[in-house]
Amino acid sequence: MSPAQFTIDQSTVDFGEVEVSTQKEIKLTVTNTGEEDLVLKDYTFSGANASELSDLTGIKIFKNLKQCEFNI
After folding, report:
1. How far apart are CA 16 and CA 63, in angstroms?
2. Predicted TM-score of the model (pTM)
3. What's the CA gap between 53 and 70, in Å, rounded?
4. Would you kindly state where each structural domain of the chain is located, as residue ranges?
5. Strand locations in the chain (E)
6. How far is the CA of 1 from the CAs of 6, 15, 37, 66, in angstroms?
7. How does DSSP classify residue 37?
8. What angle do CA 64, 68, 71 make, to 5 degrees?
9. Over residues 32-42, mean pLDDT
10. Closest Cα partner for 31 from 22, 20, 23, 40?
11. Mean per-residue pLDDT over the chain, rounded
């Protein structure tokens, strides 16, 4: 089997201007182009207010999954 390899449909995410007390979601799609399970770990978010995304960190294992969408 070929090792897991992934692509993300966007290399950066720009939320633009978001008014106070409102939310804005952006969808990211992660695709595994390999045959083995995809394991995401030791990744970080950067940029202004990146600490607010801390609940999305940790080890993520995608078994038998070729594509996954995240709303951030």
Report:
1. 34
2. 0.62
3. 12
4. 6-10+26-71
5. 6-8, 27-32, 38-40, 60-62, 67-71
6. 15, 38, 10, 14
7. P
8. 155
9. 84
10. 40
11. 79
The tokens for 6 are 């992934």
- Which candidate, 2, 4, 1, places its Cα nearest to that of 65? 4
Question: Which residue type, as a one-letter code, is found at position 61?
Answer: I
Torsion sign, CA atoms 51, 54, 58, 62: negative
Separation CA 31–CA 10 (nearest Å): 11
Distance CA 23, CA 42 (A): 27
Place of tokens 């045959």: 35
Residue with token string 């709303």? 71
Q: Indicate the pLDDT class of residue 57, thresholds 50, 70 and 90.
A: low
